Amino acid sequence: MSVIRHPGVLGQRTRRRLVGLAAALTVAVVEALAVSLWFGLVITARTMTTAFVGLGILLCGSLLRIAIFETTITDSTPRLTLERVGTALTLTAGWVVWLLLAEFLGGVTGVLVATICLTGALTAQFCFECYVFHSVTPTPSSVTPVRSAAVLALGAAALLTTAWFVDWTISSPLAELDAGIIAIRIETIQLAAVVFGLCAFLAHQHRFQRLLEPDL
User: Fold this and answer.
1) pLDDT, greater one: 10 or 88
2) Percentage above 70 pLDDT, the chain
3) 55 assigned to some structural domain
């Protein structure tokens, strides 16, 4: 009855939900591309050049992700400030430490420990972002960053698992031309990147839903 009496409430909730879904999808695409490209570069070519290029991609992705988050939550145009750069740097550092820790420990232990540590780091990162750009301290009633961080960390674990323990490729001829045969080639790391993107969408969709619709 309350919705019928106040139809604007339903429209406002629908708008917030659509905004949250669009923002989560955009952030997921940005994060999946940045993290997957960085990860693919550093595990395939161990050179200073690829390390710096990968860090640049990861940092740019972090800055863009945080800008989208701020725009969605505050409805303001983000500017490149020391606060925002520092937030992006902490996010970038979290991913780098995750990979270094996993490689230092190695094997299944490295994946498990790194995933747990990444969950903690992302939880702190999400709380920090919420405090900086939303001016509130997250509580169980307003936002649950641990769940979002855990889902995103599981996606990162999929990247590590496929890169270290799974080695197969799907390939099939697509068409035969005069110049040769066009074939489709799908590697496990590509599938893992898709899984990571899906996890990123679920994680950020939950964040935006709780922040944009705290009454749910």
Assistant:
1) 88
2) 77
3) yes
